[in-house]
Design a protein that fits this description.
alpha+beta; 2 domains; four-stranded mixed beta sheet
Amino acid sequence: MISIKKITAVFLIFTFFVFSGRALAADAMEVTLKDTAYGGIIGALIGSAFVLLADKPGDHLDYIPTGAGLGMIAGAIYGITTASSSKSFSEIENGKFSMHVPTIKVSAMRDKTVDAKETATSVGLFAYKF
């Protein structure tokens, strides 16, 4: 059985290595990795809270790594969708082709002829920067 001391030691070592780098993220990968780490830490804390709320905490220690795993998945998804400055699925910039998670754009407009509000949703598929 994994003890609380081992779990705490692993998280302290993990946070030391993850957050000992530069303060500003230079690229999307760093932002995604940091969001994943934050998600894992928050998930582990939430899992720890559920362990403490359980009738027999020793029987539910598996909530901590489960919470950390789910938090890392959520953090990675959040990091991937927010780290990229691109709004299109694919783009060419400085002769380099890259693919990203596209940003979904929702626009609200008013149709004056029928006096109704309409919503349009669009996704950029390709961008070429000169």
